[in-house]
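INFO  loader      accepted 1 record
INFO  loader      residues=151
INFO  predictor   begin
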Amino acid sequence: MNPYALPATTHSYLARSAESLSEAIAADVPMRYACAHVAALRAAAALLSARARPEPARRRPQKNAWVLLTEVAPELSEWASFFAAGAAKRAAAEAGSSRAVTEREADDLVRDADRFLGVVEQALGLVPHLPHAGRIAAAPAGRWSGRTGVA
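INFO  predictor   done
INFO  writer      dumping C-alpha cells
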C-alpha cells in the first residue's frame, strides 16, 4: 500500500490513536484501560478507512470494528479477537467502575495497544511510531511496576 495515497481520515485516526495512548499513560487505572482500548479501536479504524470498500446499500447486519477488521485484514484476526474481548471491561471502566480492571491489566493493555498501533502502521506501509515505552517508564512512581515496556 502506498503510504502517500492513504486517505486523510487514515492519518487522522492514527494520530488520534497515538493521542489516546498518551492519555492512557497519564490516566488512573480504569481510564488507562479505557483510553488504551480506544487507542486500539482508532488504530483499527485507520486500517478500515484505508482498506474497506463500502458495500451496496442493501440491508445488511451491523458489524462492529473488530468484525470488520477480521474481514478486511484477516492477518489481524487475533488482534481483533483480543480487543473485542476487552470491550465489556472498557465499558465498565468508562462507567466509573474502580473494580473493572486491575492495574496490571490496564498497564498490559497500554503496551498491547501500542504494539497494535505499530502493526497497523506497518500494514499501511508506514514506518511504525516509536513505542511509548519511554513515556511509560517516565510515568509517576508506582505505575508500570518495573516492567520494561513494549516487548
